[in-house]
Design brief:
Structural class: alpha+beta
CATH class: Mainly Beta
Shape: globular
Strand content: 15-25%
Organism: Hypocrea virens (strain Gv29-8 / FGSC 10586) (Gliocladium virens)
Strand order of the largest sheet: 5-6-15-10-17-9-8-7
Order of helices and strands: EEEEEHHEHEEHHEEEEEHEEEEEHEH
Protein name: Phytanoyl-CoA dioxygenase
Distance between the termini: 42 Å
CATH topology: Jelly Rolls
Pfam families: PhyH
CATH architecture: Sandwich
Helix content: 10-25%
Number of strands: 19
Largest sheet: 8 strands, mixed
InterPro entries: Fungal_Metabolite_Diox, Phytyl_CoA_dOase-like
Number of domains: 1
Number of helices: 8
CATH superfamily: q2cbj1_9rhob like domain
């Protein structure tokens, strides 16, 4: 069972945001927590789930909109990437209003360095994650988004802020799974460092539950009346997710970035796998020294993805990767 601390969410309307109280309580009896798949030693050796664990992961993607797979990313790879990205996060935080923040400056949109030195297949093309996304979406999903959400400790004199509850699918979208987010935390995520608030089972709703136009910083917000209704059925949770895990989330699921009152920068990578039939036109931009790495993974049968890339020199990639948009400025819709 995933270790979870429950944030008893006394919902308070503050303008357009919905705020959960900081009070914590024991889990309510019968409440369903995020499902966790724990691969066996043999599954780790083979770098894929067996039939039973794959079925469990797929079931909970459909049922809850989210599943956690533990202990499938080496900590050494995570720590090496985290060291670099924490430095970058501070650069973005110091940009203030000009930075790529999502809803508030405590939640930053941050890309990883897109060059070979910082590219770890165990993280970015994790075979356990791709096995599940392929089972749900179809063979060779399209990987067209690679970024991260960074929950930042507040600057001196600033107050920690949370995001409104929202869906990343802030457009008319299919009523069945079409995109899964592969989240990889670079540290253990807890309520104390801004673990994401999750509203499990809300991935089967449509844009009639939302307010705010696509492209606005605050688009995709869930209307207060629907939050109150959903809270009575299945309250939100703020789970602890172990470092070394991957989290697979339906793009439609309601969630909210939470305050990070700690002194630790909490970075959670986000790669989006789209169904092979889904006509999203986005492309990745990578340094050209990554090309042979991806080609070699594909030749070895360890990629399992279509990866549309605009290749640039590694020097150009390092100059531009922090100059990206905020989350809601990306268009996850498909072409007509």
């Amino acid at each position: 069972m995933l270790a979870v601390r429950f944030r008893a969410p006394r919902l308070i309307s503050r303008g357009l945001a919905t705020v959960a109280s900081a009070a914590k309580a024991a889990p309510a009896p019968g409440l369903h927590w995020p499902a966790v798949v724990r691969p066996s030693a043999n599954e780790i050796k083979n770098a894929q789930l067996d039939e039973r664990n794959l079925e469990k992961a797929v079931r909970h993607i459909h049922q809850d909109g989210l599943v956690v797979i533990e202990d499938v990313v080496p900590h050494e790879d995570i720590d090496n990437l985290n060291d670099k990205m924490v430095q970058d996060a501070r650069v973005l935080q110091n940009m203030g209003d000009n930075g790529p923040f999502n809803y508030n400056q405590g939640n930053l949109q941050q890309d990883a360095p897109p060059v070979a030195e910082f590219f770890y297949p165990s993280i970015f093309t994790n075979t356990f994650a791709t096995q599940v996304t392929s089972a749900v979406l179809g063979p060779r999903p399209k990987w067209t988004f690679c970024s991260a959400n960074s929950a930042m400790p507040p600057l001196p004199g600033a107050s920690p802020q949370r995001q409104p509850v929202h869906s990343d699918a802030d457009f008319a979208h299919p009523a069945h799974p079409f995109a899964l987010v592969v989240n990889v935390p670079l540290v253990t995520m807890t309520p104390e460092n801004g673990s994401t608030e999750l509203w499990l089972g809300t991935h089967k709703t449509d844009i009639s539950f939302q307010e705010g136009a696509h492209g606005e910083r605050a688009s995709g917000r869930i209307k207060e009346s629907f939050l109150r209704e959903r809270e009575a059925i299945r309250p939100p949770i703020q789970p602890i997710v172990k470092k070394g895990s991957v989290v697979l989330r339906d793009l439609r699921l309601w969630h909210a970035g939470m305050p990070n009152p700690s002194e630790q920068v909490r970075i959670m990578l986000a790669m989006i796998h789209f169904a092979p039939w889904y006509r999203n036109p986005m492309r990745l931009q990578f340094g050209d020294n990554l090309k042979p790495i991806l080609e070699n993974l594909d030749q070895q049968g360890k990629l399992g993805l279509e990866v549309p890339v605009d290749w640039v020199s590694s020097e150009e990639a390092l100059k531009t990767y922090l100059n990206r948009g905020f989350g809601n400025s990306y268009d996850f819709n498909q072409a007509p």
